[in-house]
Amino acid sequence: MRKSPAIFLCSVAIVLAASTALAGEQVLEFKLVTKPIDYKVTEAANIEGQSVASGKLFGVAFFKDGRIAVKDFVNSADLLKGSGSIHGYSTYTFEDGSSITARYAGSVKDGKSKGEYTILSGTGAYANATGTGSFESLPSGFKGAGLYDGKFVIKTPGS
User: If you average pLDDT over residues 77-86, what whole number do you get?
Assistant: First the structure.
């Protein structure tokens, strides 16, 4: 039985539309509170105000959609008189077990930090996730803890 070109083209269009519908993008905005767990700061010899710091930190993220995630991460900083570069790796784990893992890079200047995320992977609802994000510190009354605004732009193949 011979199929017409119109039926073939319609079939291709339906398949393409269905595969596009499965892929999706989500914007997740959140507030984040972080606290050092095992963090070491080392002052550089003979360079006033120069330090290198690294270690493990922990945080809790409160998402605008009402969900909560814990954040386990490692951070490294190279600072001169409190300003300089930071980078690290974060995993945000939600109550349902889904997670997002990202690398970040940023800077600290005048006591404020900001940076960009690159989504590396995910599990559960975020399996095979990619994307980007950002964060920026906020004034905080928490002693020994940081407060941040954050955002992820998550792309998942099945959402």
Answer: 97
Are 67 and 94 within 8 A, CB to CB?
yes
Name every residue whose Cβ is closer than 8 Å to that of residue 31 and which is 6 or more positions away in sequence. 61, 62, 147, 148, 149, 150
Short-list 46, 59, 22, CA closest to 149: 59
Whether the pTM exceeds 0.85: the reply is no
